[in-house]
TrEMBL record:
It comes from Liparis tanakae. PROSITE patterns: CARBOXYPEPT_ZN_2, PEPTIDASE_M14. The active site is at residue 108. This is Carboxypeptidase Z. GO terms for molecular function: metallocarboxypeptidase activity; zinc ion binding. The lineage of its organism: Eukaryota, Metazoa, Chordata, Craniata, Vertebrata. Keywords: Carboxypeptidase, Hydrolase, Metal-binding, Metalloprotease, Protease, Zinc.
Amino acid sequence: MKWIRSLPFVQSASLHGGDLVVSYPFDFSRHPQEERMLSPTPDEQVIKQLARIYADSHATMSNNDTDRCGASFYRNRGIINGALWYSFAGGMSDFNYLHTNCLEITVELGCDKFPSEGELYPEWKRNKEPLLSFIESVHRGIKGVVQDVDGNGIKGASVSVRGIRKDVTTAEDGDYWRLLNPGTHILTATARGYSRVSKRVHLPPNMNKAGRVDFALEKIPIEPDIDDHLFPTVDTWERFDPYNQFERYGEREVGEGGIERQEKPWWWTYFSQSGISPPHWLLRSV
């Protein structure tokens, strides 16, 4: 875990055996009492497309043959949300999504967990093209550098996409990578002690490389008593909106005692319903 948090991975795949399907996060159900429940990430559209790329490149994973290994997934053409299949906590895909920039899928290579030596080469041939297609799919979306006005990279800056409650963080030299599907996106770069910069970007349907979007942030003075005003924890348009179908505008809700109500992540009910003290330190902050 330290390794993947120290290097700016963009996407990854975990190879398993036992079935023939590609699953994608979340693997842990958004409701603790539901063993099989669709639990999409805010990047549902992007990560589902990564799973589709692998399955469609495989010779049999996405076909409608009901007598083959993995036939139970033929209606979904060889892909499924992990928690909808079966829920489990502590999966690497969920960890990567929640704590790093990396989007990970899980590839179930076949029904035989321990194939014989003679099956290894045919298995490699069946998965060679899907693996290459998956690797090539990293060139989707945007990439760039967040820097100051003097051209120095800003490490640890956040790059957000309107309507997707999941930011990526810049690496050592201020560089970043963000997987996105074609369309028009509003991007915002922020860093403590710097101005906030937003850009509208259009990604065409057919792209053979990621679009380049750089940001130049100006330094601004920060005083402790106005820090929260300059860097609110949740912008007015941000919410759990995995399909990017709507946006929120208007004033924030204020509860009793003038305390602002903030939306909690999907896993919050697990702690509140089980009587365990919720981990406030895990809530997103800028």
